[in-house]
Specification:
Layout lengths: L6 H12 L6 H8 L8 H13 L4 E3 L7 E3 L6 E5 L5 E4 L7 H7 L11 E4 L2 H22 L1
Parallel strand pairs: 3-5
Antiparallel strand pairs: 1-2, 3-4
Helix pairs in contact: 1-3, 2-3
Length: about 140
């Protein structure tokens, strides 16, 4: 389908292309509401769906939490922090035969795959070790 060009859609795409985070619709709304005072969440979602349809943006679904969006369309994986929710691109070489193997082993016509790696990011690990250190120091001081 052909869509009329929109300043709001252009800015949404520009923001997605300029960020290395994988923002939610709410993040986009917060970034753009001063620039476009009449902006609504409906406008954000409508334009995201158009950009997805035009293959300029992809949705990264996260089950029961908010979907994330990105403008990087080349195949890649993600690292996801289970503590703070950070989503980061991970440039691991693609295993191209995985789709063929999955199709041979199932009755599905495999179109694509998605692999995400879950763990704890460096920032959260540092925060946790700092918290542990502070807690141990406080405990030691009380017992001395």
């Amino acid at each position: 389908m052909k869509y009329k060009r929109s300043k709001q859609r252009d800015r949404i795409l520009q923001l997605l292309q300029q960020t290395e985070t994988h923002p939610t619709a709410d993040w986009l709304y917060q970034k753009l509401k001063k620039e476009f005072p009449n902006l609504s969440f409906g406008t954000i979602y409508r334009n995201l769906n158009i950009l997805i349809e035009q293959n300029l943006v992809q949705r990264i679904p996260f089950g029961s939490t908010y979907d994330r969006y990105e403008a990087r369309m080349s195949p890649h994986y993600h690292l996801i922090c289970e503590s703070c929710g950070l989503v980061q691109d991970f440039n691991l070489p693609q295993y191209k035969d995985i789709n063929i193997q999955a199709q041979k082993m199932s009755d599905f016509e495999i179109l694509r795959h998605r692999i995400d790696f879950f763990g704890i990011c460096e920032k959260c690990r540092r925060r946790k070790s700092q918290f542990k250190y502070n807690k141990e120091s406080t405990h030691r001081n009380k017992t001395e």
